[in-house]
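[job 0412] stage=complex_fold ligand=flavin mononucleotide status=START
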Amino acid sequence: MSPLNTLFHSVDLGANLTLNNRIIMAPLTRSMADDDLVPTDAMAAYYGRRADAGLIISEATLVSQDGQGYPNTPGLYTQVQIDGWKKVTQRVHQNGGKIFAQIWHTGRVSHSIYHNGELPMAPSAVPIVGHGHVPRTENLEYETPRAMTLSEIKRVQHQFAVAAKNAIEAGFDGVEIHGANSYLIDEFLHWDSNRRVDEYGGTVENMARFLFEIIDQVKAVIPESKIGLRLSPQAYINLEHDERDKQVFDYLLPRLNQYDLAYVHTGMFADVPYEHLEGTVTQYIRKHYRGTVIASGGYSAESGAAAVKNGDADLIAIGRSFIANPDYVEKVKHDKALIEYDNDMLNELY
Ligand SMILES: Cc1cc2nc3c(=O)[nH]c(=O)nc-3n(C[C@H](O)[C@H](O)[C@H](O)COP(=O)(O)O)c2cc1C
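[job 0412] stage=complex_fold status=DONE, emitting structure tokens
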């Protein structure tokens, strides 16, 4: 029996959702929505071509205009955007697939060009170290964001809930709350970006509060079994490391066991071992979290199958190879050669 067979058994993900296999298409920002941030027909075709993944997780999708940080990333906060997504979800379902929407706010990984000249919002008025170049702009640097007021915190949390409800209206099978990769939720979870002294900062409980209140609000409008969560305890993309960061995740991961979420998903580009985590990020999540775990970060079908077999993860998300190979699942199943990913492939939505 091929060692990959373990990936090709159907698996139940929460109530009433059975995946055809354990291969997940990772969320992949493509910046191809139209200028109203509405998904296009080309996006429907792109996702439809990948419907033989056990589950597609959509590219990060904005909960509000306030959350934008990249050009032409889709939203889920206007009726036209919801209607645009309907075409995508219908195509995926027609082709036998399942799809979750990844819901997102970039926080300080943004620029005033997206907010009519106003500074982007973040937990605290702390810039990204070294500022850095705003992607796809002519030499714009990240600015010092402004600290969110308490009423803005409540507003954004509510926007996550509305976007989740809109996702269901748009035909998605569920949502993934984007708590990873140095965007707004992750900024609350790290000491570098969260210097608040109110109930949203200063202690691990306070730093995790923003996330848990979002989960609570989302689960008030859609079933918990339709809510996934992506976390990256170790993805220092636009964040500085702080020794105390691990304590935040040591606190929050076991607390997630009180919920009945669809899954927790590792956000990493390379899921390699770290001494202070005593293993890979996925192994660290697995140690604390008893529900379904999706691994991601540099996996092949072989290493993914091995991770499932040895109990590190239940499902394996594949990112770049899915951009290069729309027929990834078919190729892996029949042992056909894969095309190697290349950054130039991002220019085209195939
Ligand atoms: C072009 C590109 C876009 C990405 N966009 C997102 C995104 O929208 N949301 C997210 O959580 N991760 C995003 N990621 C990270 C991927 O989901 C994934 O974790 C990463 O590519 C590692 O998996 P891989 O080695 O299989 O590609 C992106 C990665 C790439 C290469």
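The chain is about 30% helix and 15% strand.
[job 0412] exit 0
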